[in-house]
Amino acid sequence: GMQPCLQALLSLYKLFCPELVTITLPGKTKTYFKNSEGPWKAAINAIRQRNQGGSPLTQAVFLGTSQPLSRKRKWNSQLVIPASSTSNLEDCRGRNSDLYSVNETLPVEQLRTFPQLLQNIHRLEFPSQMGSVLTNPLLLHYMNCVKDESIHLRLYYWMGQMLQEECTWCVVDNTDEKAFKSFLENIYNAECFLQEGFAACEEFLYKTLPLWDGSCCRSEILKLVTWIPLSSFSEIKPYLYDPLAQLFFTSSLYFKCSVLESLKELLQNWLNCNVMHLDPELNS
C-alpha cells in the first residue's frame, strides 16, 4: 500500500533514478531522509564567503547547528590555573573554625608537588576553568586517582564547546589557525599523559573529518586520531576510515605516510589498552 514511509522512499528513488519509478507520486511527501549533501554545501558556501570577503556571517557547519555560535568567550591560551571559588574562605574560617579544621578545602593553585597532592587529595577544590587542567600534571594525576564523574562531565562539555567554536575549517570568521593548533596540541599532550583519549575529542573528530581538507592542522589532527578509544571496526569505519580514505587516495605521498603512521600508533595504543584488561591466565 501507499504508506507515507514507502512514498518517501519511492520519491527518493525517483529523484536520483527516475527510470526506476513509473508510478505517479503525490507532490507533497513528508521528508524522511535528510540531505546528505547539506554539510558539504554549507562548507563550500563558508569557503566562498571567506575567500570573497563578503558577508561577515558566522556559520557553524557541524554539530547540526543552524544558529551561529557566540565567539565572545575565548579560551585562555596560557591556560593558567585561575583562583578558586574560595574567595571568602578567610571570612568563613573565623565563623566556622571548628568545621574548617576538619573539612577545609585546598585551592588547586596552591599545589606545587606530587607529595602535596597526595596529602591533600581528599580536600582539593577543582578550578572553575577546566582549560587549566590540560597543562597541569598534578590535576591530570588527580583526574586519574579520583573517579569523580562530575569532573569528567565538566571537561567533556567544556572541551566539546571549545572545539566546536575554534575549529578553523568549520567556522567562517575563525582564521586563527596558530591558536587552534596550540589548543589541539595541549589536548594531545594531556591524552598522552592520561594514556587515554577524551570522548569530546573523539566526537569532534568523527563530526569534522568528513569536512577536513587534510591540510589545516594536519599534524595535530592525525595525533588526536591515535587516541581514539577502542571500538569495533563496523562502528569506526564510516566515521574514521572512510573520510581518511577519500583524502588518502587523492593526496601526496607525505600525507599517505602520515596517515599510515597515525593508524599504526592508534593500533599500538589499542594493543596497550587491551593488554591491561587481558586475563593473565590466557597464553595467547
UniProtKB/TrEMBL annotation:
Keywords: Centromere, Chromosome, Nucleus. InterPro entries: CENP-I (IPR012485). It is found in: Chromosome, Centromere; Nucleus. Pfam families: CENP-I. GO terms for cellular component: inner kinetochore; nucleus. One of its GO terms (biological process) is mitotic sister chromatid segregation. Belongs to the CENP-I/CTF3 family. PANTHER family: CENTROMERE PROTEIN I. This is CENPI protein.
